[in-house]
Specification:
Structural class: mainly alpha
Helix content: over 70%
Distance between the termini: 28 Å
Strand content: under 5%
Number of strands: 0
Largest sheet: none
Number of helices: 10
Order of helices and strands: HHHHHHHHHH
C-alpha cells in the first residue's frame, strides 16, 4: 500500500512540474496553428484549389514548406509530446474535480488524446526529416491489405464505427459545452468567457462532424470493398465537397475548424494543466 501511495505521489509531483505545464501550454499554441492550417486546406478543397491532403498531416507538411517551417515543426513536436505526457498523467490520476461517469469519460478521452498528440508529434518529426508520406495513401493501402485478409473487412468496418462514434461524441461534447469543465472560467472576463464558449462549441462540432463523416466512409469502404473511400479526413472533406451545396458546407466546416484553432490559443492560457 505504501508503494502505491509513493508511486501516486511521485506521479502527482511529475504531473505538477512547472516545465511540463509551460511546454504543454506552448503545445496548445502549436496545436492551434495546425488546425488553422487544416482549416485553410479544407477551404482550398472546398473550391477545388488544393492538391495537398486535407488533414493534420497535410497541415504539418504545409508548415514545413514555409521559411523557418522546420524550426516551428520541431517546436510544435516538443509541445505535442509534452501534451501527450500531461494527458497520460490525466488518464491515470487526473480529473479529480469530477466524479463517477464524468471522470471516467474524461480519463478515457485523455487516453485518446495521448494517441493523437504522439501521432501528430511523430508526424511533425518525420516532416522535418522529409520522410512523411501521404497519410491518406497509407491509410488506403493499409485498409486494402486488411480487407484482403480473413475478417479484415469486419475490422475495417469496426474501426469506421469507432471513428464515427468518436466524431458524434465530439459534437455532443461541444454542443453541451462540456469542454468548459476543463477550463479556468473563473479567471476569464465575461467577454472572454463568451468568446471561448462559442469558439469551443463551433470547433468541437466541426471537428466531430469531419471525424464522423470519415468514419462512415470507412464503414462504406468495408461494406462495398472500396479501399479508396478509406482515406480518412481527406476523403471526408472531398466527398462532402462533391455533394449538392458541398462547397458551402465545407467552407462552413473549415470556419469551424479554424474556430477550434483559435480556441486552442485560449486553452493555452485558461486550460487546467
Amino acid at each position: 500500500m505504501s508503494l502505491t501511495r509513493n508511486a501516486g505521489a511521485t506521479a502527482a509531483q511529475a504531473a505538477n512540474s512547472r516545465w511540463l505545464e509551460l511546454l504543454t501550454r506552448a503545445g496548445f499554441i502549436g496545436y492551434g496553428i495546425v488546425h488553422l492550417l487544416f482549416a485553410w486546406l479544407a477551404l482550398q478543397i472546398a473550391f477545388g484549389e488544393s492538391g495537398e491532403e486535407g488533414n493534420q498531416n497535410g497541415a504539418l507538411r504545409t508548415l514545413g514548406a514555409q521559411p523557418m517551417g522546420k524550426f516551428l515543426l520541431v517546436a510544435i513536436a516538443v509541445g505535442l509530446f509534452a501534451m501527450a505526457i500531461w494527458q497520460a498523467f490525466e488518464a491515470v490520476i487526473g480529473h479529480r474535480f469530477l466524479r463517477g461517469r464524468e471522470q471516467l469519460f474524461e480519463r478515457i478521452a485523455s487516453v485518446v488524446r495521448v494517441i493523437v498528440f504522439v501521432w501528430l508529434g511523430w508526424t511533425a518529426i518525420k516532416v522535418v526529416q522529409d520522410a512523411s508520406a501521404n497519410a491518406s495513401d497509407q491509410q488506403q493501402q493499409f485498409s486494402e491489405r486488411l480487407m484482403a485478409s480473413d475478417g479484415g473487412r469486419w475490422l475495417v468496418g469496426l474501426a469506421g464505427l469507432v471513428l464515427a462514434a468518436v466524431g458524434i461524441g465530439m459534437v455532443i461534447y461541444g454542443l453541451k459545452k462540456k469542454f468548459e469543465r476543463n477550463l479556468k472560467t473563473g479567471e476569464m472576463s465575461p467577454k472572454t468567457h463568451t468568446l471561448t464558449r462559442r469558439l469551443g462549441m463551433a470547433g468541437y462540432a466541426a471537428r466531430g462532424a469531419v471525424f464522423a463523416l470519415a468514419g462512415l466512409l470507412i464503414v462504406v469502404a468495408a461494406v462495398k470493398y472500396d479501399p479508396e473511400k478509406a482515406r480518412g479526413l481527406d476523403a471526408a472533406l472531398r466527398t462532402l465537397r462533391d455533394q449538392s451545396y458541398g462547397p458551402v458546407l465545407l467552407a462552413l466546416m473549415a470556419l469551424g475548424i479554424a474556430a477550434f484553432g483559435v480556441y486552442c490559443f485560449l486553452q493555452s492560457r485558461y486550460r487546467r494543466v
